[in-house]
Amino acid sequence: MKEEEVINKIRLLKRLQPSESVLHRVKKNVYQQVLGEDREKTKFGLQNLLDNVSRFIKQYTIASYGIAFALLLAIFFSTFSNLLPTETHTAILATKLAFAPNQYERARIALTDTTSRFANTQTVEEHIPSASQSFALTNNELAKLELKGEKGKYTTQECHQIYQKYLMYLEQENKNISQKNNPPLANLKSQISAYEELAEKKLHKYNSL
Amino acid sequence: MKTDIVKQFEMQYRQLAGGVFRYVYFKVSGYELAQDITEETFVRYWKVLTKKKSIDSHKALLYFIAKGLIIDTYRKKSNKKISLETIDERLLAVQDTMEDTVSQNQELEQVYANIKKLKKDYQDILFLHFVEDFSIKEIAYIQKKSENSLRVLLHRSLKALKEKL
Questions:
Q1: pLDDT along chain B (165 residues), means of 10
Q2: Is B161 within 8 Å of A10 when comparing Cβ atoms?
Q3: Residues of A in contact with B118 (CB under 8 A)
Q4: B17 in contact with A, Cβ within 8 Å
Q5: H/E segment holding residue A155
């Protein structure tokens, strides 16, 4: 017998095939196993956390009340920090910025803080030095952003959007202050105009990216 | 991410599950056992898919996993000897006429039995190269042997089978 004939005979084994129903059943079992394991892992993780928390509460009852109180305070301060005196507010803002995971988050925190604290011109007029500081801080944090974004941290699009928001806010504030015709606001107005110009330049750069 | 894995898995399963089952059956000669090992092979393959970003050859990887599981099975069942030279009828395709079916299946069973009489190394290389269409390079990955030694092995195994047929 020639070698080719032997090979052809071996190739007859290709005809051995399990039925479609068997393959379907195997696939179904595989999915049950792999997806079931994923669910188990999640369940186990959550259950583990809850178990640990309840065990901690049972062992350290007083300490856990303290932690709960501290958590409530932290939530209160982070939500209503605008109502606090300037020094306390500055300290909380500095902490938030220090713990922010990346530059985009720092810029976002600073911008949100400024826009919420100085939402109307009346407040700006009453707290000119604070407003000036706040605008300077926001401008500083936004200037440190990488326009192209940073891999795994923030995207070009996010960066572009925050700059658009920032510019819109500056334009609005500039317009409001101009309407007031209040001499003590002149310096702040020129500060805002300078920042506005910088923001416009940054936004123009996106066209070439 | 998960959708990509499911797509990849579905595609490879559609193309390769039949072959993996056939290979496992050839090695263990038990239909239900082959079913279990094939299932476990694809479970492990899924785990690799979720962890590894690039896989050179999905087919070679699947057979490599299957081979490892077969070895484990051999170890566990070392005391039990199973009849190795007959084919489970559930694997035999039914042809157009009864005569065709009988004659073709007889020929198939004869080749199968003769291959099964060869040394294990010979059986493996003949099956992987001519039935599962693996290149020598891919077989080297599955068997963890050098390509040169496999070429020699292929030549010798063909010669050995020729003598038996």
A1: 79 92 89 91 91 85 93 72 62 58 77 90 93 92 92 93 86
A2: yes
A3: none
A4: yes
A5: strand A154-155
